[in-house]
Amino acid sequence: MAEVEQPAGEWRLRGGQYLGEISALCFLHLPSHSPVSSLPLLLSGSGSQMFVHSIESGELIRSFHVFEGIRVHGITCSSFWFAEGSPSSALVYNVAVYGERRVKLFNLTIREEDSLCVELRLLQSLPKFGHWVLDVCFLKGEDTTSVDDSGLVAVGCSDNTLSLWDATNSSMILQVHSSESSLLYSMRLWGDNLEDLRIASGTIYNEIIVWRVVARPDPWSLTSPTGESISRYDQHYFPPYEALPMCRLVGHEVRVYGKFILKRTVLIILGKSAFFLATMLEFGIVSFLKIGRGIWRCLFDPNSSVLITGGFDSGIKVYQLNSLLAQDPHRCFGAHAVSDRTELFAVRIPNSSESLGLMDSKSEYVRGLRFSSEDTLYVATNRGYLYHTKLPKFGDVTWTQLAHVSPELPIVCIDLLSQSPSIISGGNEDWLATGDGKGRATVVKVLNHADSPRVDSTFSWSAEKDRQLLGIYWCRSLGHRFIFTADPTGVIKLWRLDIAVSFVPCDTGESTHVSLLAEFASHLGNRIICLDASPQEEVLICGDLRGNLVMFPLLKDQLLNVSVASQATISPMNHFKGAHGISTVSSITVSGCSPNHIEICSTGADGCMCHLEYDRNLQIVKFVGMKQVKELSLIESVSVDKNLGSSEYAAGFASTDFIIWNLATETKVLQVPCGGWRRPHSYYFGDVPDTKNCFAYVKDEIIHIHRLWKSESGESILPRNLHLQFHGRELHSLCFMRQNPQVEANERSSWLVTGCEDGTVRLTRYDPFVENWSSSKLLGEHVGGSAVRSICCVSRTHRVNTLAGGYKENLTKNVEAFTEAGDDPVLLISVGAKRVLTSWLLRKWNPREEESLVDHQQQKKTDNGSAGSSSMSFQWLSTDMPVRNSVPPKKSEKIDRFVKGRKNGSTENVDAKVKLPTEGSLGDKYEDDWRYLAVTAFLVKYTGSRLTVCFTAVACSDATLTLRALVLPYCLWFDVAMLVPLSSPVLSLQHAIVPAASLPGQKTPMRNLYVVISGATDGSIAFWDLTGSIEAFMDRLSTLHLENLIDCQKRPRTGRGSQGGRWWRSLNSRFPKKAPRKDSETAKSQEAANGNVLDDASCRSSLFDDSSCCTSEASKAESPKLEKKSADNSVVEISEISPLYILNSVHQSGVNCLHVSEAKHGQCSDGGSMYCIVSGGDDQALHCLTFEVLPQSSTPDPEISTVKYEYSHDFLPHGKHCVIKLICRDNIASGHSSAVKGVWTDGTWVLSTGLDQRVRCWILSETGKVTEHSHLIISVPEPEALDVRACGRDRYQIAVAGRGMQMIDFSAEMQKTE
């Protein structure tokens, strides 16, 4: 895309789209038989903007910016009138928009031209109120003949007062105070005039007070003192009014945020964590219905029975209210009833105990149900009967007995394969497969004609021994010629049917037209529950009873061979143990294929959807990602909307209810109480599951059937989502996705990753040329929903030439698969509460292809407002968190003395064998509520090595700072070093990597200097040199046999019967560690390091002994720590790193944010690099520091004061270390009027945000002085984070996150002058 040119001399901050909570909803009712829409239009408020939506089409028509820095809290509109008095002219509405203490009155016009045109014009802005405005209502004036009858405006405020205003001249007529003087959370005004006006107030005491306004004396017979009649609304002679209480509603356990009154019969009440409908009779609550959480606003249209809700997650959801409140009517056997177009059937099998007497051991009952279409249901019984049930639109249900497949034996299992109408048969072909208690399998081909079903052919054979046939399965990709049977021991058999056989009765004995092709035996020994196959990729994938996935080879030659002598037992070629923990795998599908990979999707009884990838060349299975559907405890299957293609629906159970859940809009499509998944049941979906679904289950010998099948073309699909769904809680961190800076600079769209208080991480795309945000999808979730505190994107790999001439590594398939693409990996690292650290790997991202799809995706949008599926996807890599001890032991005296000595800066009196307070040692034993506060990470790779290491510095709330290493592709975590001492917790982290030396003619340096900068709660900024620890770790990495440890964590832990899906290797104290040493011990430590390296034999025998490696799932081990044995065989701990330099009292309080960038101005010393650090704190100050990083061998300028901390690394043979040279610094004492929460710089511009809801732009001069250039009021309440992306030359995209997220465009095209 070409770069957007800006006018010369124009430097501007432009506020972009806000994505956050929906704070206002209002209907725009249209005339009856309007050509625009059969449903009303919708006005919504989010941030400082107002949106106009079409409920019928689900499209966003227009957006308006109505406030500056003030959120829209409510919208009210009057009835419409025609602009020119003609029904063919434009529609005009008066609209009141209010937020905080402001009320604005607008004139909204709707015209239908080539497309729907909406215009908004400001009429009046009322004076600022003394309290927050909670509701506004238009009242009719005395002139009832006027077309525009909205001259009077009633305003309700949070002090429980009502004021009446004349909108024509912005003057207040009267003000009434309620007798209940209480602060309010919400208020609702209802009525057309002052006499009929009713006020419902939600107080801070969780009560609702309903009152009205009455006049005293009678205002109808008032005269002036001179005897003349006065105007009814003359404010000087206006009669006194008072508040008359009507009733009080009590009993709410949470704050009441909203109410909505419908025809005096229904009161809709919004709470902090619930939403329910209360049917009222003389203000008595009869019933309620809870349907969600975090809902701030709701609307109901009685004409269309449409309920609309909006809340914190930015979604606007549309429901059909009568479908939510509909109760099952009285069911008549053999008939059906209709409720909201949902047909309800209640039928019995022909030979049920109802007609034969009481039920006994010989009674017939249902063992299996299968839908083949919306009007066809197959029923299998315990007496071996197979029935066909016809469910007509009108008339009674008809039964047809198809076969008596197993006389006097129960049918144990059943499966169905439906095929499209055949040219020969002229009807649908249904292939039914059953298995009985004697191990006999029966296949029945049924032709469904318009008049009656007919059995075309049958196959019957002995598949297993008695009581051993537990499952029979079709595979759609193989067709009806092949079928599988399963036994309890994990063995499945593949059978081939000869379809040329003529009709054979089921009870004639063994069929000679069935051939056994192969037996597939799982070495895990668990019963196979589901399977799928890909004949093109020649693979068979099975899921078993204990959550495992097993893969078998399925050769094409084997499918074509019909000889019984060719049958063979086939062993698995690979497996993935515990994909769903210990829960059953309920379904598995091959979701996609590429030249080298097969994408697999499985669902299970743990309520999760797992996505895996199988490499057919390397024959390895990789876990890609997982989605946990919290609304379902068991997911039976996932289907796709065939019309839209991007909306997925999960069908499963939550306790005793069957639920269809829309994964795209996060809404419930259907919920049926049925008794749970153990009862016989079946379901069937059409092309749009929202409007076409069937469900049948058995209870008390009755088959209950729910059928919703809307066949009308063009009918709106409800529920739908009118606005892009986002996080439902506060955001603490965000970052732009970065891969190739040269390519990204010319790309117009950008991707942002955000972390939320509820533990979710989302990926959102922004396009400045689209009026709204493009798409947002859930990337993952922290274990247990722990809050995400910090996120960083790691995209650049720092390569270093090795001094030893390269590594000799034993490469495994995982390493080859990870490195064969040749591109640098792009990682996402997120940390948060409970010390959870999660990493993701970018799988694919093609920005060029993405841009070519933008125009097409703008035309075809899904119901949730996203523009189709994105071109960026991530693979989950690893989740690391400490071990939880069931019984916390007491803290030892030695540890007490160690901590006390460390606080005093001395450890001389501490026993040398006491372990350092590293990850998983001290904190886990006596406190498990610590949290990670900040993270920074970078990738390091040595030439000659196939391994890439992601070094991660994490700061914890227990005032510890740890350097950790993630070794790719093995996904193993190591503790590398502790950064001590720390007097207070670290809030922010940044890093700088400086090339120290390179060979002549080579760009890759021989050595890098790794420096981490930290900002703490005491206002100090510290510099840490990590070079020695990183080089020591990389040197030792080549000596470790990591391929023996690849069987570690394979999937995230969900906390729902799954501890990660694998047996965890015990890695504690199994790897060499470096000891903290004083300067006097440097020579001894170097000598010991050169003479005590573990050889290969000792590594395998002591570190990887199989007898001691495996532990139970519940006893997951800590991350490994580097250790080594010294000459006296004593084990010493990981290394300690002391700070190079500490800048004390940079801020008067905590350093909330840091950012480091290469300086654009100034002269660097030989071998050095100049950087600029910008920091912000709770003291509202903005601090800028310019410094230079020099290798120890470089000679600093004697005229410049140098701060040098002599710190020798015991593992460096040449003793090289860093020098920090401070160049200049500047401090803005009042950078913001509140705490500074986010900063960014590129060495020229400085951008910051704070709790004052401002984004400020600063210019960084050559002398290091910071000067404010401009600022912008943003719509994000409580900003917490800021990130910036450079888009071409002198143009930036600024993202601010807090309670929602907003994008800001900053263009700086002016040439800078002195």
UniProtKB/TrEMBL annotation:
User: In what ranges is there compositional bias, type Polar residues?
Assistant: 864-873
What broad class describes the main subcellular location of this protein?
A: cytoplasm
Ranges for region Disordered: 851-873
**According to its UniProt record, where is this protein located?**
Cytoplasm
One of the GO biological process terms: tRNA methylation
Q: Which UniProt keywords apply?
A: Cytoplasm, Repeat, tRNA processing, WD repeat
Q: Name one GO cellular component term.
A: cytoplasm
Q: Which InterPro entries does the entry mention?
A: tRNA_Anticodon_Mtase-Reg, WD40/YVTN_repeat-like_dom_sf, WD40_repeat_dom_sf, WD40_rpt
Show the ranges annotated as biased composition (Basic and acidic residues).
Answer: 851-863
- Coiled-coil zones: none
Protein family membership: Belongs to the WD repeat WDR6 family.
List the protein's name. Answer: WD repeat-containing protein 6
Its source organism is: Punica granatum (Pomegranate)
